[in-house]
Amino acid sequence: MTIEEAIEWIHSRLPFGSRPGLDRVNALLDRVNHPEKKVPTIHIAGTNGKGSTVTDLRCLLEEVGLSVGTFTSPYIERFNERIAINGHPISDKQFIQYAEKYQVLVEKMDREQEVSGITEFETLTAMAFDYFLQEKVDVAIIEVGLGGLLDSTNVAVPMLTAITTIGLDHTDILGDTIEEIAFQKAGIIKEGIPVVTGNISEQAMAVILEEAGKKQAPVRQYEKDYRVEYLHPDERWGEVFNFYNEAGRLIKLKTSLLGRHQVENAGVAIELFYQYCALKGLTFQQREIASGLANARWPGRMERLSEEPLVILDGAHNEHAIRRLVQTMKKEFKGYELHILFSGLKTKNIEEMLTLLKTIPNVHIYLTTFDYPRAIELKTFAHLADEQLTIVSLWQFGLAEILEKMDSENLLLVTGSLYFVSEVREFLLTVGGNDD
Fold first, then answer.
1. Considering the entire predicted model, what is its pTM?
2. Is residue 234 a part of any domain in this protein?
3. Can you give the pLDDT at residue 175?
């Protein structure tokens, strides 16, 4: 195989869709002697904030000298980055080796038909655990794909779990109430294993506490067992805040990620870091936490891609994330003429997301589509065109129109689906002569 053929084979499992359940992934893991049971794991669920929390926590753990695996989705720059160690994606050579190994296993299972139709995500989950075991990582941070209870990553045997946020998303699969979604997320809680929770509403928290109680899992709650105090934006980029828990306080920490919600995500990561160090008997200094957070970078999440013109990318892919994005834009970018290039997936509430974006002062939205199987069809939204919203059939044309009119008082925000943001990001970096 070449790397292109390896990725193409992984993608060939996409038609099997996203089907909740652990039978298929367990059957596959059984054929490789269950690596997931041998890898020390921190398991993270949540509607939004998972990726930022994973990145912050990875950087904190690296600061105390650990080898840290991460399994995340989707990717922004390269497919390989979904499986990484200390921020370095699995190499093409290794990815090909694992793809060839799993192709044989999966196709044999398809032929046997007892447990067939393993999905792309289930295959990648098994590959990730296998890789982390072979590479002997100290700990792997595993990001839930969808929900928690029936997500293929829930085969993990974690030492810590976390639930970052809970909002209405994937309601067709997870349920259409906050309580139903909270129950699915709480499915990652394990018997006696500590769980750290982020900024979660009272009704969702009640569900989590009930499930944790049944499993005698200690809960570390935001605003109860630990808290963050937002101070102000960093003078360059990011946010400044204080952190408090029973061990004391950490003052004037900086996260390089922009938005108040990133302070909350950083708080979850720091509390997880405290809990991990306590479990493992590791000591650390405040400077290591400060350095870890400062080193955290997460492409496509409030990423400043260019200063002149000012271009920001943010994969706010659901209503919950758009609300936070709107708050950040209103607070941190007052006075700019804002141009938004937006696209999303058919499964999201696009009209509500656009309605929220329209509340930003001095905003004009360019609604478009992109090359992805579940991308929106523009004809569905033709009736939304007005003085605040223009529909463009090709996002490249919309982007060119925006960039042509931009000066120092203008800002371009590319947002919506992370798949869309990734596509535009690659184009902008290529056109700008930056192929890093």
1. 0.86
2. yes
3. 55
Overall average pLDDT of the 395-418 stretch:
92
Q: Is residue 105 part of a domain?
A: yes
| Domain ranges, residue 394 | 303-431
C-alpha to C-alpha distance for 423 and 370, rounded to whole angstroms: 8
- Mean pLDDT calculated for residue range 216-236: 93
Nearest by Cα to 264 from 168, 188, 164: 164
The reply to whether 52 and 134 lie within a common domain is yes
Same domain, 348 and 414: yes
In a domain, 436, yes or no: no
